[in-house]
Design goal:
356 residues, alpha+beta, five-stranded antiparallel sheet, two-stranded antiparallel sheet, 13 helices
Length: 356
């Protein structure tokens, strides 16, 4: 059902392209960017991406391959930890979907992220530590898996569970921004038949009617605004001048469609990016005051990385997690949660970390 293609040559071409991209983008270029101490110093760009997410250059760590398991692991093995140190990865959990829940009021998404311990913290009935301890006994949230079970009527025992869940992830990260069922047909990883793609697409909108209605409402509001703009919760404004382009030509329709997708993506992805930026600043200020036993080294999308001494791992991890999660009530009933991973070898070998 989830074959790449019925043509025997397509899979080979896709694999060849993946290897060429890794070689030209990373293998051949990273060596020349390493300084005399063996370190890379990428530049992070505030508005390098139209949606407001951080991007980078020389190199762009945001584009380190992730989908190709073998190649992704090989590239990440090149990023090693200094001997005697441990790298802590504090990564926002499903933050884009959490922002989507808050912005659209989707009943399904809000229900998925419901947390009694979080609301107790918001109401002042407990503190952050109470929230952190309380959520440990609450059901874990995986919107992709929940939706896979609901739409396909299967569980993790299904032989094609991973493929079906991957299809749902494509939907969850594409359809909210205006992508149609063709996304599932054209995706190199999926190549779904049209009837199945349409069915999944329709099921998504039936389950989450608030997403499309919110997208249309916000785009209408942007068009009515003389500045054709949207300002997110942190005060950053994005202008969509091409929203009023004529749609009488194919080029015009494609341009307007692209602008609509980009503007709504800036509403959701940009909101998540602002949260990561703010947390980077907050943790950095703790470092400057000597209250964080580690040094931030990098950020990749919704993740902040820290290096610390082995003896300081617990303190560094919990402080980073606390700073990234301490926004009670900012996004209504939706808590923001950071997952922790650590490694003392290289990026590819990071493992989940939990307080014992």
């Amino acid at each position: 059902m989830f074959m790449v293609s019925s043509h025997p040559g397509i899979e080979t071409l896709i694999e060849y392209r993946a290897h060429c991209k890794v070689r030209t983008t990373y293998t051949d270029s990273l060596i020349g960017l390493v300084d005399k101490d063996g370190r890379l110093h990428p530049s992070f760009l505030q508005w390098g991406a139209g949606t407001g997410r951080l991007s980078g250059r020389a190199p762009n760590l945001m584009n380190i391959p992730a989908r190709h398991k073998k190649l992704a692991r090989l590239v990440r093995q090149a990023f090693v930890v200094e001997p005697g140190k441990v790298r802590v990865f504090s990564d926002y959990s499903q933050i884009e979907l959490r922002m989507l829940a808050w912005i659209t009021g989707s009943a399904v998404l809000l229900g998925a992220y419901e947390s009694a311990s979080y609301m107790a913290w918001v109401r002042g009935e407990t503190d952050y530590e109470g929230f952190r301890r309380g959520r440990a006994s609450e059901p874990s949230t995986d919107v992709h898996s929940d939706m896979t079970r609901s739409i396909f009527g299967v569980d993790e025992r299904d032989p094609d569970w991973k493929g079906k869940r991957r299809a749902i992830k494509v939907v969850n990260f594409g359809v909210p921004y205006g992508a149609g069922w063709g996304l599932l047909v054209s995706s190199p990883e999926l190549r779904l038949p049209e009837h199945q793609a349409k069915s999944i697409f329709q099921d998504y909108h039936a389950r989450n009617p608030e997403v499309e209605s919110t997208r249309k409402r916000l785009l209408a509001k942007m068009r009515a605004d003389r500045d054709l703009s949207f300002t997110n919760w942190a005060g950053r404004t994005r202008h969509g001048r091409r929203l009023l382009w004529s749609t009488e030509t194919v080029k015009g329709r494609l341009t307007v469609g692209e602008e609509e997708r980009s503007m709504f993506a800036s509403v959701v992805q940009g909101s998540a990016a602002e949260l990561t930026r703010l947390s980077i600043v907050r943790t950095y200020l703790l470092q400057k005051r000597g209250l964080m036993p580690g040094n931030s080294t990098s950020t990749v999308h919704d993740e902040i990385q820290f290096d610390c001494d082995r003896s300081d791992v617990r303190d560094a991890a919990l402080i980073a997690q606390r700073e990234m999660e301490s926004y009670p009530g900012l996004f209504g009933t939706v808590p923001v949660v950071a997952d922790l991973e650590v490694t003392d070898t290289n990026w590819a070998d990071k493992k989940e970390w939990k307080d014992s």
